[in-house]
Amino acid sequence: MNPSKTALLVMDIQNGIVGNFAENPEVLIPIQDSVKAAREAEIPVIFVRVAFKEGYPEVNLNNKMFSAIKESGSMTETDWSTQIHESVAPLSGEPLVTKRRVSAFAGSDLEVLLSGLGTEELVLTGIATSGVVLSTLREAADKDFRLKVLSDACIDRDPEVHRVLVEKVFPRQADVLTASEWADSLK
């Protein structure tokens, strides 16, 4: 693996989403460890969040999930809920990509950024395994990226859905390993 052709995606690790796991903050440790390992190996770390412009012009009422967010009046670009959680805060110069749907590619400039970096391989982390990780993995595979998923650096509210995805679905399109296995492979 050529680290310069790899990027770590840290997806939806933002205040409003991490808050759903407040009773279990140790679930963030593998994500923190993967960010640290990437930085030490000089692999670009790209932060991805979901957020909307004031007034939610991107939200169609036919979209069940996002129309509910529009009605709640939260998740705008400036809201506290859409800011990256302090436990993995971006360093100066680390990109923050704002997406408008579930996949990290949807409504964002991620693909252009990855092209500019010469990225060929993506390492995926995020909340939720059944949301952003699944959607991004599928789209990235269709875009011919090599893929790795850090199984313990992905979180889902439903442990069984997480297990099925990382054990049965993701291996069809990605290498699945733990954050520590990935960190060890960089040394």
TrEMBL record:
Key word Hydrolase present: yes
Signal sequence bounds: none
Superkingdom of the source species: Bacteria
Claim: Hydrolase is one of the keywords in the record: yes
Residues covered by the Isochorismatase-like domain: 6-180
InterPro entries hit by this protein: Isochorismatase-like_dom (IPR000868), Isochorismatase-like_hydrls (IPR050272), Isochorismatase-like_sf (IPR036380)
Family: Belongs to the isochorismatase family.
Organism: Falsibacillus pallidus
Gene Ontology molecular functions: hydrolase activity
Gene3D superfamilies recorded: Isochorismatase-like (3.40.50.850)
Name used for this protein in its record: Nicotinamidase-related amidase
UniProt keywords, alphabetically: Hydrolase
